[in-house]
Amino acid sequence: MSDTTPSKESAQQQSFSQQEYKLRIPQFCILRIPIQECTNVSGDAKVYFGQLSALEDSYFVWGDPFNPTDEMLSEMKGVSLRTIQRWNKELEDNGFISRIEVDGEGRVISCKQN
Questions:
Q1: In the CATH hierarchy, which top-level class contains the domain 30-111?
Q2: Which of 52, 71, 92, 98 pairs as cysteine with 110 (C-beta 3.0–4.6 A)?
Q3: DSSP state of 69
Q4: Per-residue model confidence as pLDDT tens digits over 81-112
């Protein structure tokens, strides 16, 4: 018998891993005055920022690193990858988020609520 067939246990672990990393849109978020008053950031990017901030807070509580890929954020929001990249650029250019490159992918690492 061949060992190339994955075991039921490994298939369950893989399925759990994929579910574990699926981001969910927070049910509420708080936008502080600096981002509310910023005229260089679109309304949709402001809502996205509030949701990122809420996600970052929940990851901090559980002690996990907050560094979702643009693809994960695109899936969470139900928008195109290009839209996420545009919102990230607006927010980064105006000092509301910090990003790094990990394995050639941009990742949000910090939301700044001044």
A1: mainly alpha
A2: 98
A3: B
A4: 999 999 999 999 999 988 877 777 767 777 77
